[in-house]
Amino acid sequence: MGLCQQPAKKLVTHTELVDRSQEERLYSMANYDLTPEQEMLRRTVRDFAEAEIKPVRAQLDEKEEFSYDLVKKMGELGLFGMTVSPEYGGQGVDYLTYCIAVEELARVDGCQAATVAAENSLGIGPLYNFGNEHQKRKFLPDLCSGKKLWGFGLTEADAGSDAQNSKTRAELKNGKWVINGSKIFITNSASKITAGITVQAVTGAGSEGRKEISCIIVESGTPGFTAKEMHRKLTWRSSNTGELYFDNVTVPEENLLGPRGGGFKQMMTTLDSGRLGIAAMGLGGAQGAFEAALDYAKQRKAFGKPISQFQVNAFKLADCALEIEAARNLLYKACWLKDQGRPFGKEAAMAKLYTSEVFHRVANHCVQLHGGYGLMEEYPAAKFYRDQKLLEIGEGTSEIQRIVISRYLGC
Amino acid sequence: MKIACLIKQVPDTETRIRIKPDRSGIEESDIKYIVSPYCEFAVEEALRVKEKAGGGEATVISLGPDRVVEAIRTALAMGIDKGIHIDSEGKSFDSYATAVVLANVLRDRGFDMILCGKQAIDGDNGQVGPMIAELLDIPQVMIIERLELTADKKGVTATRRVAGGGKEVYEISFPALFGCEKGLNVPRYASLPGIMKAKTKPIEKLKSSDLLNGALPLVQWANYQLPPERMAGKKIEGDLAYQAHELVRLLREEAKVI
Ligand SMILES: Cc1cc2nc3c(=O)[nH]c(=O)nc-3n(C[C@H](O)[C@H](O)[C@H](O)COP(=O)(O)OP(=O)(O)OC[C@H]3O[C@@H](n4cnc5c(N)ncnc54)[C@H](O)[C@@H]3O)c2cc1C
Fold this sequence. Notes:
The complex is a heterodimer of chains A (about 400) and B (about 260).
Chain A: H1 14-27, H2 36-63, H3 68-77, H4 95-108, H5 110-130, H6 133-144, E1 149-153, E2 169-173, E3 176-187, E4 194-205, E5 211-219, E6 225-229, E7 241-252, E8 256-257, H7 263-299, E9 301-302, E10 305-306, H8 311-339, H9 345-370, H10 380-391, H11 398-408
Parallel strand pairs in A: 1-4
Antiparallel strand pairs in A: 2-3, 3-7, 4-5, 5-8, 6-7, 9-10
Chain B: E1 2-6, E2 9-11, E3 33-35, H1 37-53, E4 57-64, H2 68-78, E5 82-87, H3 95-106, E6 113-117, H4 128-136, E7 140-149, E8 155-161, E9 167-173, E10 176-180, H5 192-198, E11 203-207, H6 240-253
Parallel strand pairs in B: 1-4, 1-6, 4-5, 5-11, 6-10, 7-10
Antiparallel strand pairs in B: 2-3, 7-8, 8-9
Helix pairs in contact in B: 2-5, 3-4
The complex binds flavin-adenine dinucleotide (FAD).
């Protein structure tokens, strides 16, 4: 897919776009080869996930334990700040490369993939894309090395899909923001190494009856700010999810991220790219569940032959392989569009929706093929089945994705 | 300090080997290749020695078809400084011919330390290392499980395990060759920054035909065949005296091994 290594930051003009597409039509109608670097990263992350994550994933999941050791190792591999410029300690690779890494982690464990995807897209993304020079220099190097984590606080108890309805408020008093309110379900926000949060808050009354929403940086340890780990999740049990409380939390005015009132736009932009990461988790999870299903179906014998030889099961596996292939093409195309600097929002929503629903179906088949063993945690099928559900809910539910896509269609 | 590590690309151990219809070799088309694990220990050790010495240059060298560039790139991504790819030009190489080619590349390049795997896991011959040392007339220690740079950085203490749990400890000054054993180290992963950096590291291209100097392989391959399928085992039941008696009888009459 004609891949560039640097994120195409520059917006492309219409004429350039036409020129470029004509050029590409001449020289590369479609090229499905990954670059040698992307191939090598895929191998490395796969080897890493197999050797370092697979042996501990079930235990971490059972204990609901967030692994600082794995975060450290994933940091050393360069999996945080992947699309961030090396100037701030990032790796400066394109989105496709990033998604390949997330895909390979999710193939083995959705929880570690969640830590990486949420950190890149939600933690680091907004600071990198909207932060000023001082903010970037201050926070990004430690986040890109994986020494510290960062959360993106959008969802509230009464405002999820309807994020405009946020109640958390920030008032500017004597050159300081005073924040009151709470957030819920915030990934990477309540770990021992969380350096801070980007919190979305109402900062005043905007135009047309809409609230003015802005993003503000709150560092861990600021008085009045507490982060509490959330437990007893069905999915992503070894990922760090936090509930946040802001009780007269006071931070300097310059902790504003980007322009005042820019919060809603920043969120939309962040979620557009974030969807690629979530889609990569769906794709990788589907791949992992499919491999587990295929292996098991070839080994398990009933009525004198492997169950994979019963047509009903063979066809299920064929459907899984087909849908994963289609999902991969859709996601990689969405990444390619983004990496080319072209509009990609619709395709990102499609990829997020489709890969998570493919994962849903594949995980379901995977458990079904395992029979009773599929319901036991000794086999990976059960965890895939549990973990997939989050992907139809987090970063915009499947219903919201359909709304987004239908708006692109003018509905 | 100049370090060379010699690596071989081999089929993944999970590959199901298939023989070509004319039995002249194995089907290579759907094989997944990896760096032979013992060679990975050599790469890792080269990096560690370099780090401990506080500098130097490590070169990775591989003989084989174009696909081995991938193995070289992986070593570069792990941190090796430069690569040399010797194109096998479609020919097969036995241990001797391989050693001649590699020795001719290594000679005159001033390497202090040459690291290789104790053997490659495809042919499992374990001959190339010692042969190279012989051709270069330098000392070698194979199957090492510990390597310690001396204080003056002009040599190493190398430990190898021998039968009965004993250990042999060698003190050797450079230049010397070492064959790495499992347990020597745990190879690092190629990190993403490493992968990106590797893009700009040089890989020198050489041709094996220029390096053989008229040497010919000493081994010729008549044909390949798979080992016979394992047959079902036999379980002898009954009291111990009967079992022993029956076992001896079967070994003598059926298996004809005693
Ligand atoms: C493990 C985990 C990690 C998370 N990490 C983060 C994070 O890091 N940062 C963050 O800000 N949030 C995070 N979230 C929150 C997540 O994004 C929200 O849960 C999600 O957006 C849905 O919001 P909600 O839970 O309030 O559901 P609701 O919005 O209440 O939705 C309930 C149901 O109503 C449907 N619905 C809502 N509106 C419509 C509509 N207009 N049309 C049709 N159907 C509709 C939804 O699709 C859904 O089925 C996380 C959640 C979990 C579980």
